[in-house]
Each structure stands twice: as structure tokens, then as C-alpha cells.
Amino acid sequence: MQAGPETRRWGSWGSIVVGAVIALIGLILAAGGAWLAVLGGSLYYLIVGLAMVLAGALLIKGRLAGGWLYLGIVAVTFIWAWWESGPDAWALVPRIVAPVVLLVAVLLVMPTLSWRRNRWQLALGGVAAAVLVTGVNLWVADANAPNPIWSQLPAPGTAGMADPSGQQVGADWPAYGGTYSARRYSPLAQINPANVGKLERAWVIHTGDLPKSEKIRNTYGAETTPLKIGDTLYLCTPKNIMIALEAATGRERWRYDPKVPDEAIPYTAACRGVVYYAVPGMAADQACATRIIEGTLDARLIAVDARSGRLCPDFGTNGQTDAKVGMGEVPPGFVSINSPPTLVRGVLVTGHQVLDGQDRWAPSGVIQGFDARTGQLRWAWDMMNPQWSGYPPEGQTWARGTPNMWTIASGDEQLGLVYLPMGNAAVDYYSSLRRPEEKRFATSLVAIDVTTGKPRWRFQAVRNDVWDYDFGAQATLVDFKGTPALVLPSKQGDIYVLDRRNGRALTPVGEIRAPSGGVEPEQRAATQPVSLWHTLRKPDLTERDMWGMSPIDQMICRIQYRKASYKGFFTPPEAGRHSIEYPGYNGGTDWGGIAIDPQRGVIVANYNDMPNYVTLVPRAEANKRGWAPRDQARGEIGGAEGAGDPQANTPYAVDVNAGWRNKFWPFSKNGTGMLCKEPPYGGIRAINMADGKIIWDRAFGTARTNGPFGIPSMLPFTIGTPNNGGAVVTAGGLVFIAAATDNLIRAIDLRTGKTIWQDVLPGGGQATPMTYEANGKQYLVIMAGGHHFMETPVSDALIAYALPD
Questions:
Q1: pTM
Q2: CA-CA to 537 of 20 to 30 Å: which in 124, 194, 280, 730?
Q3: Is residue 405 assigned to a domain?
């Protein structure tokens, strides 16, 4: 005879297994919840954890009360989740999905503990109800989310805005940002919202530049934006192979390989673009009358004939100039040019990347101006030796460790000024050894007179920066209410409008009190500047903003939040304790820059919204871990910047968890890989340039290639992913952009912010697209090369799109 409920000592096998799982999870939540409560955090995890232990024990014993208790836990969880996060579907996911999955299991084992005739019908009905309620909750949360689409575009009020670079964009795309004004705007309108849905691939070419060895497989990031002049496209590959293509067909015309060694690769093998130069006074049929010039990863400037790809013998030494001359000792990979120089009045102005985080006395960040025809040095600006105008005197070198410009400058041909977005001194997270001149020019936009090489003015966005908030994006040159101006975006999310003649702010700039403390409290500024006109920055983080794939890892992130030092924006880094940097060093606007429609007066800005989890590591501990500059004991190159950087010749190394991933998870070295902050992690926004007000704002990027443990979810839902690379806006009323980690290129309606066309790329689209016209047809081109830092698939495909004939 079957035992009745009054004689049963244990439940069914199903209830024992489910009860054990619930009890185990409850123990984890109770233990972690107790820790969180001690730290001043939410009591939910402790209370629910203890209740789950009891529910699990009852199920193991075969008591129906365990199932009913767990049902009550889920009901309370729903109420708590809505109270904490409100109508935000992604915020609700870790709070309710995993508990509902367990509820389904509980409902399915409850009939094995009951003798009611209709017990299975009730169980299956309960399962259906649980799934339905969960789905409705998520749907309602998503439907009730604030609508990011605001209103109509402003009426065109800035039509005819002159371009001070002296270049014209339209049929051609003559510079990295369209022109040296860096507007990333095209007056082409053949492709528009009415027909963009018909866009198809016109041609695809493969550059052939892919990692050839295991050693460099984690370094590639093809960030190139081609130029188009006449009937030819010009581009460079990650290792600086220059290629010319027929614009209408993609057929290769020539290529030049400078044979850059693998040892020259810094964090990323990337070449963002090349320079086109037509030499004044040279006959069009002469060799090198028009030339393509690039900077290389081993810091050479190379000039080749635009028609043949052959080296220009009158440039430097047989077509090459070494930008490292005068720097003294330069270990391989420490100095690289990965952004195209800026050409103003015949002078190629270039900075270079100095490998971050290695040594306080790394090579100099000197800015150099080379003659675009001869390749000879015209001038150099060494901020520590402003009296020098050329190479250092014999036996001396450029000052080591000074702030550098690793990104792209913009230029005003009329004013003869080049605008330099400057970085930090050689180590980012320690400032006591910085000299006054370094503090003065770091994290600043510096206007250089291209004739003399001397600074005309500067605008500093961060005082004594220890957050790696260097300027990453070009300033964009515009007219602002009748004044020659520039729009300057920053990593911390602020957007400034400055008079480009003198650096005076044309929009309000305020001061906020900055947190004190950290390892150098005497170095921290009492206040920091912020834009009062427009910022992409979101409110400070709270414990409720923590995320994960389940309540357990969300709880772990909450514990990390409570343990860390976080005093809001500009929290200083500490040793022996993590600090939260929000936004992180990839936050706000990075090297992709912004796009501006000068006819409609609209700024389009894609942005990141992620924190970093940072800790300084005392020198003795760093030495034990084997952290040393790369030329000594760095090991495999690649990976995230700041993750175990030695910062030699300072008291501290630094360990940066970029994006703040949850790395605590059993049986997984790198944890779930999920970020501790809830989505979105990236967005795109249209801004009225006349008043700085938002036109529309939306999360940018889907979850299709993202998921726990690096497993793509393939979910098409918009989550807002990290993004690198910029946008192009056209007179046709479209924004073209890839950039996100979902490997899609999109056309966004400039009027509404809605995606109206997209295509799946063969690799990550971490590059800025460009558009041009050939034989009466408008083309859109994107380098789908992928990126190691963004963890997108590496490819060598360059893709052109056009409307069908």
C-alpha cells in the first residue's frame, strides 16, 4: 500500500532534488545577504534566503507547505522587484526570471506530494500562469518605459555653414571625419528613409590582413575609415597595409605593405585612416603629385604615390620619416601612430600613442609637424621644453612621460590652427610625480598654431586627471550663432561649445565639488569643471543599479558595490580597496567622435554608459604578481587597458576591471562575464545644437551576440551595448552607424531615432562608416574588422552598400 501524507518521511525524488536546489540557493543568498546587510545593503537577500532554506527543507521532507512557501517567496519577489526597479524590463530580468524558473520546477513536483484527483491539471495551470504573469510583467515594464523619441527635428537654421578646412565632402570623402572639420556629414541624399530598406551589398573585398600568429590574435581592431577622392578609395589595414580600390567596384588597384613587425603592436593593431595630399605646383602627371600618407604602428610616416602606391622618394628618406627620432630609448610597441595626421597649410600634424600604464618615464608625448611634401620636421611642441622649435639639442631627448595625443586632431585652414585632444602623462592613475606643465596641458584641448608649433590656447576638462579621462574624440568645427566654434565631446560625457579662435566657452560651464581622499588626497582638486549645456552622463550609481543573470550574481555585485569606495563622479582611486569610476574610461564619447548635420543643426552622439572597478596595487604586491613593463616581462600582448598595468617608477600598479564585470562565479575563471551595472551600456542621442536640448535618445545595440559566459543569446531585443566607432549623418535624413557589439550596421531615421534598416556584418563594426558617390550612385562603406577589446569577431571584410540599379 502507498504511504499517505501522514506516514511519508521524505518527498518524491523530484521534490527532494528541487528542494535541495532551493535550499542550497537559499543558503548562498542568506550568507551573502547577511554580508550585504552588514555592509548596509538590502535585507531582501537575507530574508528570502532564509525563507528558501525553509521551503527547500519542507520540499525534501515531502511537505506541500514548502511549495506554497516558495510560491509566496516569488510573489514577494515580484513586489520587491517592481518597488526597486519600476517599469524597466532589463532591470526586472535578474530579479524575477530565475525565481520563476525554479517556481516552474516547484509546481511540477507539487503533484507528487498530493493525492488530489486534479493535481496535475492544477500544476500545469500554475506553470502556465507563472510564465504568463512573468511575460506580462516584462512586457508591461518594457511598454511603460519612457518613450525615447521626443519630437520633430528643429527647422533648418544653419544652412550654408562654411567648412573652414577648405575641403568639400559629397561625391568625395577627403578626410577621416569627412573633412578636417570632422563633421561626419554628407550632403548626399540619394539614399533616404523612403528607400533605405532596399539597400544591398554592392561589393565586398577582403584585405588579407588577419592575425598570423597566436601571439597577436588578441590585438586586432580594424578601425579604418576609407577616403574617397575621384574614382578611388584609399584605406589602411590594422598593420598599415595601404590599399587603393576602384570606388564603383571595389577592384584593387594597388597595395603597399610597410612590413610592420608584430612587436610594434601596442594594445591594439589599428590604423584609423590615411591622409590625401595634392602637392601645390606639381604637374598632375608627375609621380607623387598626389600622395597617400599614413602613420604606422612603429611610428613611421610613409608617403606613396596615390596612383601607383610606390614610395615617394622626395618624402623623408625614400618615402619614410621616423617620428621616434629625438625620443631616446623606445621599446617596441611603446610608441605608435594609429590615427591619421591632420593636414593644415601643408603641415602634417601628428601625435602618437604611448603605451598606457607601463612606466612613468615612458617616451615623450611630443607633438610634431612635418612638411607634407618633404617629410622634414617643421616644428615640434615639447611642453617641458617650449623654447625648442626643432629636434632636441645634441645629447638630449624630448621630455619623457609627457601627455600625448593618441587620437585625431581637427584643423582650421583659415585660422591656421590644429586642435589637439590631449591625453594624460605616462601613467593614468597616479599623479604626484607630474610636473606643473603636464598638469596644465593634460586632458585638455590645445590649439596649436600650425606655422609656429606653439600653443595658442587650451581648454582643460579635468584637473589632475587620475581616471584616464583623456580626450579621445576630435573636436568638430561649426558655426555657432554666428561665431566660429567647435563642439568638444568628452569621455566623461560632457559636451562643450568653444570659440575656436580663443577657446572661450560659448555655452555654460560650471564647477562641482569633487570627492577627496584616495592615495593622494593632497593632489585632488576641490572642484572639477562640467558642462551645464549638455552631458551624456547619467545619474550616480546606487545599489539598485546592480545587475546580473540571477539574484546570486546580482547580490555579489551589490556586495562589491558596498565594499568599494564610491563618492560619485570623480571618486579617487584607492589601494587595498576598489573604487568605482563612473563613467569609466570608455564612457561618454571616445575616438569615434560625434556627427553634426550643419543644415539642420543637429548633433548625433553615440555613447557608452559603463563604470570601471579600479584598485591600486602597492609596488611590492605588483612585483610578486610579476607585473612589469611590457619590454621586460609583460608576456602576451592585448587585452583590456589597465588590467594589471605596472605603472613602473610610481608606488602603485593598477588593476582596472573595465566595464566592471562580475568575475566571481564557481567553475568559471572569468565569472559570468556579465556587467555589474544594469543595462543600457550604450546609447545614441540627437541633440539640438541651438540650445543643447535632446531631440531623441535611445539605447543602442541588441543582445544578439551577448550573454553569460560569452555565449551569444541571439536575442534581438535592444539592450544597449558598449560601442566604439562613430556615426555618419546625411542630407537624406539618415544616420549610418555600426559600432555596437551586435555586429550590425544600421540606418537610423534622423527625425525619429528609429532603426529603419540593418544588416549583419561578418565581423564587428568598430569603425566609422563613410559615404560617397561614384557614377551617379551613392555608396555606404564600412570596415567590418572586429575588435579584441570589444570582443567582436575579427574579419578583414570591407563592405560597400548601394541601392539596386
A1: 0.94
A2: 730
A3: no
